Amino acid sequence: MANSGFLALVVASGAPAGGFQAAEKPDLVIAADGGLGVARAAGVRVDLVVGDMDSVDPAVLAEVEAEGTEVQRHRVDKNESDLELAIAAGMERGATRMRVMLGAGGRLDHAVANLAVITSPVWSKVEIEAVIGESRAWVVRGQRTLPLSTGDHVALLPIGGHARGVHTVGLAYPLSDEHLDAHGARGIANQVISDRPTVSVAEGVLLVVSSPT
């Protein structure tokens, strides 16, 4: 079954160029500050740039603005991260699905904050997936079918609290109405045994992560 709904691609600073290789073309491309350079280097046209512009080449910014790209400038001493502002901008423009490209290296505090941001309840009405370096991740509320293949490795990580009523289909270590503790590691090191597995959670939020071996 084909995906439907308005898809926004959000590109953050340090994101991998390989994140642009997904088969589905986004309806909107948003660069979170330095993500503009990533998109530009990959030859991807950006519709909107959001952030305080502290990590953007001014010449590149002026160039894309002259080409018609919208630029939303924010204060450096703002409370929100550039990623938060970019996701919010995508929601304001009607996105129901988002693919977020994040860097896997760099500062640990930024990496942890980015994971917290994409799983925020503020975006609960938006289906979010992320490309994080060579890994992929999906935010699961309710039930979600994942575009994974037999042999892929996965981890089910409760975010923001415990996950209750967890049920899986298509994983080597199945869960049926199970509880995953927010401070435990039970959900790691699982594996897909049939294409397009499903994961559901009755209460809480899961971040399902698939990383190369």
Give a short account of the largest sheet: 12 strands, mixed
What is the SS-derived class? Answer: alpha/beta
Low-confidence stretches: none
- The succession of helices and strands, N to C, reads EEHEHEHEHEEEEEEE
The fraction of residues in strands falls at: 25-35%
How many strand elements? 12
Helix fraction, binned, reads 10-25%
Q: Count of helical segments?
A: 4
Task: Note down, in words, how this protein is organized.
The protein has helices at residues 35-41, 58-66, 82-92, 108-118, and strands spanning 7-12, 28-32, 48-51, 70-73, 97-102, 127-132, 135-145, 153-158, 163-169, 178-180, 190-191, 198-210. The protein has 213 residues and is α/β, with parallel strands linked by helices. Strands 1, 2, 3, 4, 5, 6, 7, 8, 9, 10, 11 and 12 form a twelve-stranded mixed beta sheet that branches. It is elongated. The mean pLDDT is 93.
List the keywords.
single chain, 213 residues, alpha/beta, 12-stranded mixed beta sheet, 4 helices, 12 strands
Task: List the topology elements.
Blueprint: E1 7-12, E2 28-32, H1 35-41, E3 48-51, H2 58-66, E4 70-73, H3 82-92, E5 97-102, H4 108-118, E6 127-132, E7 135-145, E8 153-158, E9 163-169, E10 178-180, E11 190-191, E12 198-210
Parallel strand pairs: 1-2, 1-5, 2-3, 3-4, 5-6
Antiparallel strand pairs: 6-7, 7-12, 8-11, 8-12, 9-10, 9-12
In short:
With 213 residues, the chain is an alpha/beta fold. 18% of the residues lie in helices and 34% in strands. The protein is elongated.
